[in-house]
């Protein structure tokens, strides 16, 4: 009796996905080394890409953007060919690379959209990393001081209060949020106040008031004034005209 069972996968063949699921315009090139030329985690895919002298990786999110397309970012990693790469099995954003330039590097991957220095504390920086605001001390850049509450979608704007006590955010999820990073990582005030998710901006005005710009439901540009202690309704608003395009 044969001790080994026939694999049910012995006659399987790969199935090429539909073109709308492809990452296009990739110039992978031709490389000679023993390591991997492409690796993926649950969030990112990286691969060697063609460049004179080597050292460049292509980076893309595993999932497409809101428009259904993938964006490939060029990541200059080394001064020579990247000979191997690997993602940590414990951190889907941590990438290790090695190269013909005889160096090994660790990369913490993530999309950074916004940066804003604290108005009264030297070296303190608010960072908008996709859906989460982070607070960093630039003298200790190895780790964030605070990771604030994750938002429901892409962060669009950050603003410190003039005395630096509070941080306000606007987001593609139409929410306005106010944080006191010294006290807690969750918002002290929040409300779904914006009418449109297109390109909002927020700015601390005088005292407890916030000014936002964005679009209403009719795609007209508008500016609104808010009391940061009560975000459920604006104090006043003004229409700035219909957006083109």
Automatic annotation (TrEMBL):
Q: What is its main location?
A: cytoplasm
Q: What is this protein called?
A: Coronin
Kindly give the SUPFAM superfamilies that the UniProt entry links to this protein: WD40 repeat-like
Q: Where are the transmembrane segments?
A: none
Looking up Pfam families in the UniProt record yields: DUF1899, WD40
Single GO cellular component term:
cytoplasm
Query: Is Repeat set as a keyword in this record?
Result: yes
Which family does the record claim for this protein?
Belongs to the WD repeat coronin family.
């Amino acid at each position: 009796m044969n001790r080994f069972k026939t694999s049910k996968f012995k006659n399987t063949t790969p199935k090429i996905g539909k073109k709308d699921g492809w990452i296009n315009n990739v110039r992978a090139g031709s490389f000679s080394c023993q390591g991997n030329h492409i690796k993926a985690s649950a969030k990112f895919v990286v691969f060697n890409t063609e460049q004179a002298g080597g050292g460049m990786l292509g980076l893309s999110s595993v999932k497409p953007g809101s428009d259904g397309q993938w964006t490939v970012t060029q990541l200059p990693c080394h001064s020579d060919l990247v000979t191997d790469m690997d993602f940590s099995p414990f951190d889907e954003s941590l990438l290790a690379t090695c190269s013909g330039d005889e160096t090994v590097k660790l990369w913490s991957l993530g999309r950074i959209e916004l940066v804003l220095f604290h108005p009264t504390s030297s070296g303190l920086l608010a960072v908008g990393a996709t859906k989460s605001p982070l607070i960093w001390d630039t003298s200790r850049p190895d780790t964030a001081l605070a990771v604030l509450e994750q938002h429901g979608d892409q962060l669009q704007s950050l603003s410190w209060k003039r005395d630096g006590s509070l941080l306000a955010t606007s987001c593609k999820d139409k929410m306005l949020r106010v944080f006191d990073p010294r006290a807690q990582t969750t918002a002290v005030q929040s409300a779904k106040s914006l009418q449109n998710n297109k390109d909002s901006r927020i700015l601390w005005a005088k005292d407890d008031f916030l000014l936002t710009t964005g679009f209403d439901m009719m795609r007209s540009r508008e500016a609104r004034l808010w009391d940061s202690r009560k975000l459920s309704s604006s104090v006043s608003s003004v229409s700035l005209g219909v957006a083109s395009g």
